[in-house]
Input
Amino acid sequence: MQDMRQSLYLLLSWLCVSLCLSLPALAAADLGYQLELDLDAETSTLRGKATISYLYQGPKALPSLFFRLDANAQASMEVQEVKTKEGLILPSRPYRYTYLEQQVDDPLLYEVFLTEPLQPGQRVELVFHYVIRHLPRNQGAYYLLDDINQLGLGSWYPRLVPFRDGQWQIYERLYADYEVKARANRKFYVISPLAPVSISNADHSYQYSTEQAREMSLIYTPDMLLRSVEADNVAIRYYYHANLQKWSPMTLELVQSVMRFLRERYGSYPSRRMTIVSIEDSPYPVIVSDQLIVLRNSFSPDADEAVVKRRLAEHLAYGLAQQFWGYQVGQPADKLAWINQGLALFVAQHYLQQQERRPFLLGDALVEDYLRAARQGWNTSLDTPRQQLERLRLDSFRALAQGKGFTLIRQLERLLGKQVMEQTENRLLQQFRGKQMQVADFQKVLQQVSGKDLDWFFRQWVQRSDTLDYAIQSAQQTQLESGGVRAVVVVQKLGQITMPVTLALRLNNGETQLKLWDGSQLSERLSFDLKHPLREVVIDPSQATPDIDRSNNRFELPGMQAVRP
Output
């Protein structure tokens, strides 16, 4: 391991020896972005010029094009003008839709009206001038994270929306070539996981380029330290602030441990290079971009090492698993990516259990977020279009994609077993690496591996907004002439979901007997002959099912009375 504590300035200056500072012409790819940026650190303002070249391969002519302005979710992004390559200014505006009988401007979607309809097979080149004000800043750094889950800033440039299957795919990302030239009014160090970096000392300008990428993430930081290591031909770069120095060796060790775990599980590493950046303040424990993980690390040097290790292990395992489930295997962007999020959390849970021998507290917290949303009556159907969910006052990504997605995958393991789930993961990777996986594909592979029909499961967990809620209505016991007791327990299904559930019969001699109830009836009387009096009945004692109300899952019996039947 190399401990590179020297300034990133020296590192980036070295890179410029082999890189040219002039931007080459746009490549002849179907889609190319040439981005020229000017960052004003005094006012947290980014001014941009985006030259977008697009070869349209669709079935019919398009009178206008749409572009995503994701940065408006966290900052203020304004398109000042749009021109053709000949300099003609085109009419453009935020997309307008009708909601509750009123016209509403969508701040995240921008429409450009073309002078002539764009024909199939025709290439168009547009030039945007835009500005982003009030850029979020973290310890003096700017994180332009263009991640697919939009936890970061999102597209900090106008990103083209493709037209496919007769409609605009407003969440879909096309592969594109990127060329970026950026300037700042003060000295920054720049991190870009996908692209070579060059730096000009004279005017604080930077240059990047990459081909066939779905995103472009950049980080501008005034100062960071770097540790790097190469393990099994995987280059790992870890950036951190000086006050996080104590935790840097632990972080790198955990990264390598998780990478080995993933290789053993899937037979390969997620990628041949990985960039990890630690920050102290973030609303999310981890934000994942292609070959990049932004890791929240708010631990002081005197924090409990065991606690720090557990939390870092949880976040890193979850983040690195998303390089498989999210970046190698995709999901259609018009719905929440609950399969990939659920599988990434599921893999992280197994890492914590097998390697660290610790509970997965991050996963438990996300499940509780889902249960809270279900208790409050929110629409929790995973079949709901993402655009509808975004209009709710609910963090649907956390509650549904993460929380319910992880809940659902855990219930599948409970039904089908660990081996079936691991075989399913590997088959999914074989079939859908580099592709989009539909919910129907996921169900089909599960059924092929397990040999079971799962229509009933997907109907109630995916398609509908059903909830699971079991209760004990009453419990009575009588003494038998033979010497034992007969206990009669009345159980109820108050929710709509049917799942098998365990009942724990706790006897007054300390013994516990476990019984399985299929949970299919709205109300059912269950009779048990026992050798000793019953002290307590508990539904789902290990809390393996996502019951929305556990207050009615326990029933204590009074002292045994000598009553003959």
